[in-house]
Specification:
Length: 167
């Protein structure tokens, strides 16, 4: 009789373990998936941030070029070598912008939406600069088609707004 009672108790305990185990396992699975997503978002942010910091180092290295996010009030007249350096620097920046566009534009997570708002504002600032637009016209065709369309729309909008101010 004791063995039958022990068997019943063990069966009841096994049912309790299953009943409690399934929700706990499901909870842990969902938590792990969320952590993976946060880690991926951080890796995305970190990779883009590293590229941006490299670009800032380039700006510091070439202060004679007007490539930093705050435009020079009286930019220097560039020689041919400097013009090429400026084009290369802006092409690097286009690549960073393209990466931000692909990673953040029209994304569903709140973090990505917030990141995109900052990048879009930053892109718009550059799209009002003549030297940036000149560089885009030379090397912009080599980027993602959707990104090209996005850039052309912003450049056109900034030109219209600039025209309204000048009028």
């Amino acid at each position: 009789m004791d063995i039958l009672k022990l068997k019943e108790i063990l069966e009841i305990l096994s049912y309790i373990a299953i009943i409690l185990g399934v929700p706990i396992t499901l909870y842990e699975y969902i938590r792990a998936k969320r952590k993976e997503e946060r880690d991926r978002e951080y890796e995305t942010y970190n990779a883009l941030d590293e590229k941006y910091l490299e670009y800032l180092a380039l700006c510091l290295e070439h202060v004679d070029l007007d490539i930093f996010d705050i435009p020079d009030t009286n930019p220097l007249k560039l020689n041919e070598k400097q013009q090429k350096e400026e084009l290369i620097a802006f092409t690097m920046l286009f690549s960073i912008f393209e990466r931000a566009y692909i990673m953040y534009y029209n994304q569903s997570t709140e973090i990505k939406k917030k990141q995109w708002e900052g990048w879009e504002k930053y892109i718009r600032e550059y799209c009002s600069r003549e030297n940036f637009i000149r560089a885009w016209k030379i090397s912009g065709e080599f980027f993602d088609a959707d990104f090209q369309k996005f850039m052309k729309e912003i450049i056109s909008k900034m030109a219209r707004e600039k025209g309204e101010v000048d009028a």
